[in-house]
Amino acid sequence: MNNKKVVIGILATSNYLMTNDTFKDTYRYGNNYIKKIYENGAIPLLIPFSDEKIIKESLELCDGLILPGGSRVRPVNFEVIDYFVKNNKPILGICLGMQTLAMYSVNIEKEKRIIKEIDTGFNHWPIELLRDNNESLAHFDYVKEGSKLYKIFNSSEIEVNSVHNNTISEVGKMFDISIKSSDGLIEGIEYNKDDNFIIGVQFHPEILPQYNNLFVEFIKNCKKYKEIREVSKK
């Protein structure tokens, strides 16, 4: 393995115990995330589980973490996030990944369900995204000036895709809300301390080439923290 490249772990979406058929106890990894990481010069690592339990050695190999979209938040997700937060390794959460980060940040302080159905009357899943329309855009988001995401996108207004039926109602004190949709939903959050890069977005930048800079900055920060850890070991 080229130790100059950073290794980005991708958390799986899980079908574990969804049926009584043990052959369907599977974990899935989206190709779009793998492709995006590889195209930006990093090494994707598919984080494995055994009976829904963490294999900690695999997390130790990672310099950063992608929390992908999906439809199921599992307790093991929070264990993985906790490992990366406590070890100052960068995290990028996408769609459900952003919502999971928010849940983690709130439940450190209190047990509370913060994911809810969208009730603004605006359709945040207007079309079925297929191969020939992956880059379709759905609505505008507004980015808080001075935020990390504002610096990454270099704009206070961005047009994004949208494939979600749920939203989050709040974040914990370790995060700031940096993006909201035109109908007021939380669409971007970021860790508010400077000692780590942890960002979540509700839309899917992995299929929108105009937002590739988010992955560039994420991987740049993974490299920075990898170098810091290597120096500390000497």
Describe the protein in words.
The chain has 234 residues and is α/β, with parallel strands linked by helices. It is 28% helix and 24% strand. It has one domain (7-233): Class I glutamine amidotransferase (GATase) domain (Rossmann fold). The model has no long low-confidence stretch (mean pLDDT 91). The protein is built from six helices and 15 strands. It has a nine-stranded mixed beta sheet with strand order 4-1-7-8-15-14-13-10-11, sandwiched between helices. A two-stranded antiparallel sheet has the order 2-3.
Query: How are the strands of the largest sheet arranged?
Result: 4-1-7-8-15-14-13-10-11
According to CATH, the fold-level topology is Rossmann fold
Helices and strands: which structural class? alpha/beta
Radius of gyration, in Å, reads 17 Å
Which CATH first-tier class would you pick?
Answer: Alpha Beta
| Average residue pLDDT | 91
CATH homologous superfamily annotation: Class I glutamine amidotransferase (GATase) domain
Strand count, sense and closure of the main sheet? Answer: 9 strands, mixed
- The shape is globular
Q: What is the chain-wise order of helices and strands?
A: EEEHEEEHEHEHEEHEEEEEH
The strand count comes to 15
The figure for the number of domains is 1
